[in-house]
Design goal:
single chain, 257 residues, alpha/beta, Spore Coat Polysaccharide Biosynthesis Protein SpsA, Chain A, 2 domains, seven-stranded mixed beta sheet, four-stranded mixed beta sheet, 13 strands, globular
């Protein structure tokens, strides 16, 4: 079975070479780039990867375009983010399972390093990602443009070995990404016709904190887990606050018309 490792990039000069080195076991390495403005492309080519550039619309579209690009040259695709690494144990497992019949895709756990610390609690492990896909039997739901979802035409398996994910290098990056995620989630809630209630601003953040810190054992990461659980509770509040603003803006437009 021919395996293509696909790395989606945009301005990933910091990570791209190390990521490429970790997927040398693949038969084909493709850096699928959305027109980076740093040295990503030059470094990827120097490292021996095939580079394909495609205008970014959303994550689902970009991954579907990448699947189409290797449809004639690969039987399986392993999607790897630039800030992820594939350790040898995972590489060996991937090569074994793609030779076995019966599955259209596999989900893979991730070891997340947040602020440089391996984080196992508060929902960051096993953090399964469906990333090993049989070409022709998988695509991404175009409706889910962020937090994209794989649609498989067949069964899904689960691998034992994990990606290494260098997630959120510092607090500033964490805050910026969560700001974008909460805004996106607020828009989804509005599209579903959900209006925030007064209790949502209190109960939802409290539930989020309890879920992260207690149910998902964030306490196992000590102060680090407490801080992450607290931050996620804050962004749960922000999501409903932004939702409130969206409905108010809609009401204002209706009033003007």
């Amino acid at each position: 079975m021919r395996l293509a490792a696909i790395i989606l990039t945009y301005n990933e000069a910091q990570h791209v070479v190390d990521c490429i080195e970790s997927v040398r076991f693949a038969d084909q390495i493709v850096v699928f780039d959305s027109y980076s403005t740093d040295q990503t492309i030059e470094l990827a080519r120097q490292a021996g990867a095939q580079v394909i550039q495609n205008r970014f619309e959303n994550y689902a579209q970009q991954r579907n375009a990448a699947l189409d690009a290797v449809r004639d040259s690969a039987d399986w695709v392993l999607f790897v983010d630039a800030d992820e690494r594939v350790p040898q144990a995972l590489a060996d497992e991937v090569r074994i399972v793609i030779e076995a019949p019966g599955y259209a895709g596999y989900r893979i756990p991730r070891d997340n390093y947040i602020f440089g610390k391996l984080t196992r609690g508060a929902g960051w492990y096993p953090d399964y990602q469906t990333r090993l896909l049989k070409v022709g039997s998988a695509h991404y739901d175009p409706v889910r443009q962020v937090h994209e979802v794989v649609v498989l035409e067949g069964s899904e398996g689960t691998l034992r070995n994990a990606f290494i994910h260098y997630n959120y290098r510092d607090l500033a990056q964490f805050l910026e990404k969560q700001r974008r995620y909460s805004a996106y989630d607020a828009h989804i809630l509005r599209e579903q016709g959900i209006h925030p209630k007064p209790q949502n601003y209190v109960l939802q953040p409290l539930r989020q904190f309890w879920w992260r810190f207690v149910t998902l054992k964030g306490y196992g990461d000590g102060l680090h887990g407490f801080r992450l659980s607290l931050l996620m509770a804050w962004y749960e509040f922000k999501k409903y606050w932004l939702l409130r603003g969206l409905w108010r803006a809609d009401a204002a437009k209706t009033g003007k018309s």
